[in-house]
Specification:
It comes from Streptomyces bangladeshensis. The protein is α/β, with parallel strands linked by helices. The chain has 12 helices and 15 strands. Strands 1, 4, 5, 6, 7 and 15 form a 6-stranded mixed beta sheet that branches. It has a 5-stranded mixed beta sheet with strand order 10-9-11-8-12, sandwiched between helices. The longest helix has 17 residues.
């Protein structure tokens, strides 16, 4: 997977000049430009199961597969990956390195000040990757705090805020590039847990002989359970593209096709949602 990411990273860098430029007039004209080019470039962060390059060098994941279906309906035949670190997705989108963020990005008020989101295509609780047997009995952030557990999570992950809300100082968290590095940190004993989305934790820990995932739980933010939803992100000028994308997303949701697309990536019906971007932006 890492070799595939490197190869596609080089491809993405070489092709950046082909990214369609956008106009803020009347909601932007990016959709028309993408139809003319026949390809949309997707910003991904190499995170299983949201958007990644598989062992055969093929772009896949929950968000890219959904993008293939929706953009095909919008008249754009091909999707092309531009891999980057999660923390670089919004800067990369704003600087037109790619056209859309397709990485399962959580919709948060802070991010809503920088980009516009489609409505969420999933909702997700948290879970931990811990050593086999979960020797410290870590099931929530409160458990981790009481046990003085050393916590790792990923760059730009919402779990940073969740841990801070529970009482951790951000400087005390170990921030790693991705979920593979998080698993390695747990397996090597550098940290006591890696915090991630429930589906990420399940899939990444599944083949490990030294680690396992905990049961999903809902984190507390401002003392209340926080429902997180992931969605595609667009430049603020491109409301026409976002609205057209949303219209097709809602059709897929109503027909049940949305669930059929994401189910192979470990999503269950419990992760389907009717949340809106407006609700999550606050």
């Amino acid at each position: 997977m890492l070799a595939g990411l490197a190869a596609f990273g080089a491809l993405g860098a070489a092709g950046c000049t082909r990214v369609a430029s956008a106009s803020g007039k009347d909601g932007g004209d990016l959709l028309e430009r993408l139809r003319a080019l026949g390809v949309v470039r997707l910003g991904i962060a190499g995170e299983i199961p949201f958007g990644y390059i598989d062992r055969n060098g093929r772009l896949t994941g929950e968000a890219p597969e959904l993008a293939r279906v929706i953009f095909k309906r919008l008249g754009v035949d091909r999707v092309q990956p531009v891999p980057t670190e999660f923390g670089s997705l919004i800067p990369g989108l704003k600087s037109q390195q790619f056209d859309v963020v397709a990485a399962g990005m959580y919709v948060t008020p802070d991010r809503c000040e920088q980009v516009i989101f489609a409505d969420p295509d999933y909702q997700m609780p948290d879970a931990f990757i811990v050593p086999k047997g979960n020797p410290l009995g870590l099931r929530t952030y409160a458990d981790a705090l009481r046990a003085h557990a050393k916590v790792a999570t990923g760059t730009g992950y919402a779990q940073i805020q969740h841990a801070v809300e529970a009482g951790y100082r951000e400087n005390d968290l170990v921030i790693v590039p991705d979920q593979v590095a998080g698993l390695n940190a747990v397996e090597s004993g550098r940290v006591d847990l890696f915090a991630a989305t429930a589906v990420t934790a399940r899939l990444v820990a599944r083949g490990s002989a030294k680690a396992e995932s905990t049961k999903p739980f809902v984190a507390l933010v401002d003392g209340k359970p926080k429902a997180d939803g992931g969605a595609f992100a667009f430049r603020p000028t491109e409301t026409r593209l976002r609205d057209a994308f949303n219209a097709e997303l809602h059709k897929l949701r109503r027909s049940g096709e949305l669930y059929r697309i994401v189910r192979p990536f470990g999503f269950t019906k419990a992760e389907m949602t009717t949340l809106t971007a407006k609700e999550l932006c606050g």
